[in-house]
Amino acid sequence: MLLGCIGDDFTGSSDLANMLAKGGMRVTQYNGIPDTPAEPHVEAGVVALKSRTIPAADAVDQSLAALRWLRAQGCRQYLFKYCSTFDSTPEGNIGPVLDALSEALDAPRAVVCPAFPATGRSVYQGHLFVFDRLLSESGMEAHPLTPMTDPDIRRWLARQSRLPVGHVAYGDIVEGADAIAAALDRETAAGARHIVTDAVTDGDLMETGRALRGDALLSGGSGIALGLPRNFREDGLLREGGQDWSGAAGTVAALCGSCSKASREQIAVHARDHPAMEAAARDILSGSLAAEDAAAWILDHRAEDTVPLVYSSADPQEVARAQEEYGREHTAAAIEAFFARTATLLAGAGLRRLIVAGGETSGAVVSGLAIPAFEIGPEIDPGVPALKVAGGDLAMALKSGNFGAPDFFAKAARILAGQSQGGQS
Ligand SMILES: Nc1ncnc2c1ncn2[C@@H]1O[C@H](COP(=O)(O)OP(=O)(O)OP(=O)(O)O)[C@@H](O)[C@H]1O
Ligand SMILES: O=C(O)[C@@H](O)C(=O)CO
């Protein structure tokens, strides 16, 4: 294994796996830390954790354990993947995990770059934008678990980290790899250990990737991985040829626990042509709607060209009301458990394709299904690949809240079946 990655959630890990697979690396996503060695063909291994919103000390322990396994696979470089919207609380996990990984690897520095231009995330003068809005005005300020109220990544990270934070601004980035390398060295010499790097375009990320060739530890959204396959290829380390992947036809379902803007639009678009059932938070929490009901409803609505969708997704006011009444963590845990159990029941009933929206929701579903690893298939939309359970016959898509085109659910169903984008579901 050449590149060892640690992802702080399952959808984000599949986003990174997608980026590396598109770059020509043979990638496997491990859901949790494997207890056996990686298969010899794996060039990039992504260990997916569900650590984004857990207490920082636990996130550090899990990330260090993932690092130990990756080091045992002989990796040359390590990447910590978090969200392209830097999802974390001020006392959150990115800083402590980055501190711990830097110290464990004795890394003189780690870049911090959440930019992912294909999905509108750019970093300019240390500030994170989602398309033309600052992060804190993008809708992320109302996220149910990690409200992002400060767009200055340097300031947000400094609140979480024990180590000094530096910055390489766009003026250096735009000059290309040599200038970026020089600026990183300058910041490192000035004592910075975590260095936020600006990036607006894929070209910026390719150049940054080139400048990071010799760095032991990198961190960011999946965009920071854009230039890495080329480094390994130029060093003659990749076995070219891509990975084998085949889709799965048969029963399909979509589950959405994401309250993000994009998911809400996708639900509305999907409901025009497909059966869609709302699983309201109050019904789940009061016990009046059980996973058994949702699974039965999906199975009742099986039909050709149909992708039944069960969703819990509400606007920020409704989310706030549910959290006030039942508590933030209890609400999230109950809804996630509901989707995990629904997926388990469906899998028992012969489900072949499963589309899940929402990072936390996906983590709960994948854990509930006890899926050890995924093979990576074609891209559905930027940041979302088709996945196949390693050694199994279930095809899945794990969609981050704000990713995907408006017709994502139907499109994903087609691609998971191995069809081209224009075919029927
Ligand atoms: N109606 C609701 N009220 C309160 N919380 C809800 C409601 N519906 C869903 N949730 C919870 O909100 C959280 C949404 O997080 P999740 O990570 O699944 O989606 P997301 O934040 O849109 O995705 P991502 O993390 O990929 O950006 C989950 O814990 C889910 O259980
Ligand atoms: O980076 C992103 O935006 C995604 O891969 C993700 O992590 C959202 O959960």
Your description of this structure?
- There is one protein chain.
- The protein is α/β, with parallel strands linked by helices and 425 residues long.
- The chain folds into 2 domains: 3-234, Rossmann fold (3-Layer(aba) Sandwich); 252-416, Molybdenum Cofactor Biosythetic Enzyme, Chain A.
- It is built from 15 helices and 18 strands.
- It has a 15-stranded mixed β-sheet with strand order 9-10-5-11-4-1-3-2-16-17-18-15-12-14-13, with helices on both faces. A 3-stranded antiparallel β-sheet has the order 6-7-8, with no helix packed on it.
- A hairpin with a 5-residue loop joins strand 17 (384-389) and strand 18.
- Helix 12 packs across helix 13.
- The two termini are 36 Å apart.
- 56% of the residues are buried.
- Bound molecules: adenosine-5'-triphosphate (ATP) and ligand LCNOYBR7.
- Its EC number is 2.7.1.217.
- Catalyzes the ATP-dependent phosphorylation of 3-oxo-tetronate to 3-oxo-tetronate 4-phosphate.
- This is 3-oxo-tetronate kinase.
- Keywords: ATP-binding, Carbohydrate metabolism, Kinase, Nucleotide-binding, Transferase.
